[in-house]
Amino acid sequence: MPHPPDDEALIAALRLASGLDPVPERVSAAARAAFALRLPGAAVARPVAVPAPSGVRSAGRDRLLRFGADGLVLDLEIEPSAGLVDLAGQITPHPGAGALVEVRTPRLTESRDLSPAGRFAVTGLPPGWFSVVCHRPDGPPVATVWTRIGP
Predict the structure, then answer these.
(1) Residues 98, 114, 106, 38: is their CA dihedral positive or negative?
(2) Phi, psi of 85 (to 5 degrees)
(3) Of 117, 150, 114, nearest to 132 (Cα)?
(4) Looking at the predicted structure, is the pLDDT value of residue 129 above 50?
(5) Are the CB atoms for 139 and 129 separated by under 8 Å?
(6) Of 46-60, 90-104, 132-146, which range is least confident?
(7) Pairwise CA distance, residues 78 & 90, whole Å
(8) Domain boundaries, the chain
(9) In angstroms, rounded to a whole number, what is the distance separating the alpha carbons of residues 94 and 83?
(10) Domain of life here (predicted)?
């Protein structure tokens, strides 16, 4: 049998319902910022396992990530650099002439054209959350899920 709420919980609920406890501005600002980062209609690229290269030793510094969606594979290599993060990537197959890649963080967006091989790079990113978006000329954008990176 569930326990009835205590008086303090009931009073707090009534305050919230009546609007006497306004939402803190920092919470509202964070919600507006998150809403502005959405991409309606984008295909969501989810993580895909990256096979370990055979016969290669790694210093453990570089981080390889792979995402896939809607016929595209986004391979990303993340490397710390002086407290910031450098990101290099390749999109296969090449999404076509005029394709554009955006590397987005909550505070900045860096745009890059793809090389003929589908490669791009962005240096000096702040550690934290990021998403990579491929804008294709003949299809909806493909956006990776938001992923946390650190130096």
Answers:
(1) positive
(2) -135, 135
(3) 114
(4) yes
(5) no
(6) 46-60
(7) 12
(8) 7-36, 43-52+61-149
(9) 32
(10) Bacteria
Q: How many residues does the chain have?
A: 151
> Do you find a cis peptide bond into 93, omega within 30 degrees of 0?
yes
φ, ψ dihedrals at 41, nearest 5°: 85, -5
Terminal Cα-to-Cα distance of the chain (whole angstroms) = 50
- For residue 15, the surrounding DSSP H or E stretch is helix 7-18
Q: What is the mean pLDDT of residues 52-79?
A: 80
Q: What is the largest CA-CA distance in the chain?
A: 67
Structure tokens, 88: 């290099």
pLDDT at 27: 84
145: three-class secondary structure by DSSP: coil
Instruction: At 82, list the tokens.
Output: 């002086």
| Short-list 151, 147, 149, 130, CA closest to 81 | 151
Q: Which residues of 82-118 are buried (b: 16+ CB within 10 A; e: fewer)?
A: eeebbbebbbeebbeeebbbbbbbbeeebeeebeeeb
CATH number of 43-52+61-149: 2.60.40.10
Q: What is the pLDDT of residues 79-122, one digit of tens each?
A: 998 899 999 999 999 999 999 999 999 889 999 999 999 999 99
